[in-house]
Design goal:
The chain is of the alpha+beta class and about 100 residues long. The protein is built from 2 helices and 4 strands, in the order αββββα. About 55% of the residues lie in helices and about 15% in strands. The structure holds zinc ion (ZN).
Length: about 100
Amino acid sequence: MFRVIFYLLLTVAVISVLKSIVGIFLRGVARAMKASSSAPGARSSNQVPLTGELKKDPVCGTYIAAASSIKETVAGQTIHFCSAQCRDKYVATLAR
Ligand SMILES: [Zn+2]
């Protein structure tokens, strides 16, 4: 009689372990699928800064962090540049 109870408990334990393993596995698969499906989206949204802290350099098209960019105020608008060279280029095209 105790053997039957022991085997029942063992079976329940094995099933719960298997369930958790399958759950972890399925979660991993779901995460992998999510990652692979969101990868092209992340690539296409590359042009849109996610944090709002990135600013596009209008000269070379590089995104720079607003904090580390070179700022130039043109016609009341603050424009961010990756380098002083880009800023000078931009200012030069405005002056033309
Ligand atoms: Zn630049």
